[in-house]
């Protein structure tokens, strides 16, 4: 059996300054209700504690694989049968506080097969803009 060709996945990473405390921001990156306010059209938690993230009426299932309360969270996307997959797409959100300036930064790591880096940057700038509107920052 031939091995499938390596996927052209890329790791996109950006930091965004947000004028809000990690305490205020964390629920927006780590809860279904918070994510649905800025990140996707809707987020539901299924009985197995998987997240159903909805964009354009399409479901994308993910599970939380790592979390540091108040600091960071990683979502790994599952296949259509809600099963883990090899080399899965994931999203990492990390909150960092600059001790020098007291600024709070949201670091986004988006590992996916999104090919157009410029488009991806515009998408994230729009999403983080919505998040800033939500938190007043």
Short description:
The protein is an alpha+beta fold and 137 residues long. Helix content is 23%, strand content 38%. The chain contains three helices and seven strands; from the N terminus they run βααββββββα.
SSE succession: EHHEEEEEEH
Rg for CA atoms? 15 Å
CATH topology: Alpha-D-Glucose-1,6-Bisphosphate, Chain A, domain 4
From the N-terminal CA to the C-terminal CA, the straight-line distance is 53 Å
**Averaged pLDDT, please?**
91
Helix fraction by DSSP (H/I, runs of at least 4): 10-25%
Pfam families: START_2 (PF19569)
InterPro entries: START-like_dom_sf (IPR023393), START_2 (IPR045736)
Domain START-like: 7-136
Protein name: START-like domain-containing protein
Report on the architecture of this protein:
This protein has a single domain (12-135), classed as START domain (Alpha-D-Glucose-1,6-Bisphosphate, Chain A, domain 4, 2-Layer Sandwich). Strands 1-7-6-5-4-3-2 form a 7-stranded antiparallel beta sheet. β3 (51-55) and β4 (58-68) form a beta hairpin. The protein is globular and about 45 Å long. With 137 residues, it is of the alpha+beta class. It is built from 3 helices and 7 strands; from the N terminus they run βααββββββα. The N and C termini lie far apart (53 Å).
């Amino acid at each position: 059996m031939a091995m499938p060709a390596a996927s052209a996945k890329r790791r996109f990473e950006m930091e965004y300054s947000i004028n809000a405390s990690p305490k205020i921001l964390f629920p927006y990156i780590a809860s279904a209700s918070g994510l649905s306010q800025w990140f996707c059209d809707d987020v539901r938690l299924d009985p197995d504690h998987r997240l159903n993230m909805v964009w354009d009426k399409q479901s994308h299932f993910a599970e939380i694989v790592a979390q540091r309360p108040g600091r960071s969270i990683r979502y790994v996307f599952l296949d259509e049968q809600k099963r883990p997959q090899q080399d899965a797409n994931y999203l990492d959100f990390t909150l960092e506080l600059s001790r020098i300036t007291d600024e709070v930064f949201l670091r986004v790591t988006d590992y996916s097969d999104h090919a157009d880096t410029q488009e991806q940057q515009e998408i994230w700038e729009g999403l983080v803009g919505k998040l800033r509107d939500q938190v007043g920052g």
